[in-house]
Amino acid sequence: MKKSALLKAAVSLLAWHITTPASAQEAPATRAFVSPSDIVVTARRRQESILEVPVIETVLSADVISRNQITDVSGIARQVPGLQIGGNVLTVGTQVSLRGVGTSSLDAGVDQSVSINIDGLQLTQGASYNVGLFDMTQVEVLKGPQALFFGKNSPGGVIAIQTADPGDETELIARALYGFQAREKRGELIYSLPISDTVGVRIAGMYSEDDGYFINRAVAAPGLGGRTPTTTRYNGGKEYILRGTLLWEPTDDVRVRLKINNTRKRIIGGGAPLGSCPDGVASPIGIPFIDPREDCAVDRLSYIVDLDTAAFPEARNGGVPFMRYLTTFGTLQVDYMVAPSLTLTSTTGFFNHEVDGLLNGVNSGPAGPSLLSDNQFHRRDYTQEFRLESDFPDSPIDFLLGGFYQDGQVSNRIYVGGNRALGLPRFLTGGVNDVSIDVLSAFGQLRWHPSQIIELAAGVRYTDEKRHDDASSITSFGSATTPTPILRPDLRSKNWSPELTLTYTANEDLTIFGALKQGYKSGSYVMTLAAVPNSDNSFGDERVRGGEVGVKARLADRALIVNGAFYYYKYSDLQVGANEQAANGIPVVRTINAASSKVYGIDFDMSYAPPTIDGLTARLAVNWNRARFTGFDNAPCYGGQRIADGCNRDPLPLAPGVPITPTTKQFAGQDLSGAPLPKAAEWTLTGGVDYEMPVGEAMRLDLGVNALYSSKFLRGLGRFDGIPGLTQPSYAKINANISFGPDDDAWRLSLIGNNLTNRYVAANCTTFSAATGQVLLPTLSGAQVRNAAGTDELACIPERGREVFVRLSARFAGF
């Protein structure tokens, strides 16, 4: 592709900047005004100009992905205002929030409100978001409810990822990267070739190894069940990805694409360092669970010991905490033009995901933990979707009809063992939840074009989803399971999710649109802890309805792109996490349905390529977002929250004859009505400048700088004036890159810096009593005064601070 074509493509980018992939440039126009330089997106699962799609979305091209070294969803979030990524432990996995709508639970059984779609395969479980990403051609972040086009309802949005297909010429790409802070070594090798005029193959492989970005300075105290880690690096590991793509086009009417991915990832270390210690680091029970050097801040340092196998006989991996991911997934997509302007598409998906892990259960050091957490998770999904879609050139009406089926099986085994060196039982609790998922849905849409410039589209998805939980308990590590009766072993959800959009494309440079939408997410079961006999471990559906209006315009002879939209949505029964404690102090994880919430705001973005400065592109994106609980009077209290602090709901019954005293626990809940949703910053901004300049004969120097700003937000359920440390302060991150090489990209040397301001951010924190090992002296909530345990500490998983990479790429084509 010529350099001038790349620069023209940069001008047309709607929500972001940079170039359009070659495959998108060649996509056919579907309706009235489509310029050859338009960005082509698949927000409605067909190729369309981004100018005409009535959806608010941010698009990252292959060039953006490469320049900024984006290899996971956290990297995507650095480029998208309003998108927050929260880390979590064990099988809970990544927690994604968009405009403040997301999942905040510590439960592995919760589907994310923002789903991820890789080459047509919809994924919703947080641990699956850790699947490594590379060789991507485009990422689309669709904001707001997405009910019709991506397999299942996604009430918060969709991150749609397209990986590269085989091209028309033989191509070999090699990349080598070194990251200085984590001592990361990463290599990629991609081979693409056309076997014949109708068959193409692309094989892509990646291997990475790093020592760990974070520093662990823990030193174990003798005789307390801990062991000094053998390395001062934390969360280092190895990963490889192998992807194969087969593209077969036997005729002009048939296109078959098969993608198969296999990934392996192993991390040594694990847990959540302390981000807040309201009562200091001293132990009220004389056991040093918190290191006296601990600064209790979200930063690069941690003090978490390994497990002594003498105190924890069941500890695997020699007592060294670890996480292991084994994933195989893929899609088979067949497009068949059954008649002129009528296409039948079949998409078959398979996903098999295993996560295995061991953790220091209370993130302790220098003392060993009071408990260990051993977790094994498995998810398997088969999906099948059929779509029949028309594109009649002489008819004002087009249609889409389709059906979707999912057969899923989710199993989570948890074992919690006690520290024998502290006198705790060898076994505390354990069990298995096996949840089956059976989904049938039908969807359709009619698109009416009364004129060339107007489109009215009405669609609906009907979903019938069944879930069943076979809960069981174990009495010791490795013992046989015993069925556990629960009150609601079967759940069934039936839902209609309609959508209405009106798009007015006045000319090829101006589009105005409006949309009314509904969406939902099925209820499920709490799976992170063993089910209690004759209890209800289920939670209900999450629902949303609302709408948005927006405008997309190209001005100043298309040098200036301006887009804006206003959205307003009401959520009912939002699924949120509740962390409580039982009488024995073992944390109880629940997912509950908040009564209601309201989310509204404005998305605005612009990009400018001044015609007088060849090669320069500037862009800015702003999200103002107001996300609040409008009714949530059954929110759990944090540990140590007194009646005077707002823990005054859900009175707890006292045992017969027990008098009410200042230390008698009386309440379990608080009213969070009016409080912000977790991870819902009111202001987020992204912006930057890229400049490409010729250097010498047929050489090019690329320079880029971009920044992300976020106002403060909550790292978990609560209020800004609640538990200390729960508020993430406002921050700004600056990223920069520079690369040099020939115009044809035969080779390129790059220097990439991310988060150069070295801001440590935690989008997710969990409350627990770190100072007492949680189980030895649980904090007291809902009383007039606190007990000796004081107030809960916060365990937070920070994002990485400053990172600097050097990368060498080589490309050989046409041989």
Automatic annotation (TrEMBL):
Which keywords, in A-to-Z order, does the entry hold? Cell outer membrane, Ion transport, Iron, Iron transport, Membrane, Receptor, Signal, TonB box, Transmembrane, Transmembrane beta strand, Transport
PANTHER family found in the cross-reference section:
FERRICHROME IRON RECEPTOR-RELATED, TONB-DEPENDENT OUTER MEMBRANE RECEPTOR
Keyword Transport belongs to the record: yes
- Name the Pfam families for this protein: Plug, TonB_dep_Rec_b-barrel
The record places domain TonB-dependent receptor plug at 51-158
> What is the annotated signal peptide range for this record?
1-24
The record ties this protein, via SUPFAM superfamilies, to: Porins
Species name: Novosphingobium rhizovicinum
Q: Cross-referenced InterPro entries, in alphabetical order? A: Beta-barrel_TonB, Beta-barrel_TonB_sf, Plug_dom, Plug_dom_sf, TonB-dep_rcpt-like
Keyword Endoplasmic reticulum belongs to the record: no
The chain positions of domain TonB-dependent receptor-like beta-barrel read: 322-756
**What is the official name of this protein in its record?**
TonB-dependent receptor
Topology within the bilayer: Multi-pass membrane protein
Q: Can you tell me which family this protein belongs to?
A: Belongs to the TonB-dependent receptor family.
Q: Where in the cell is it found?
A: Cell outer membrane
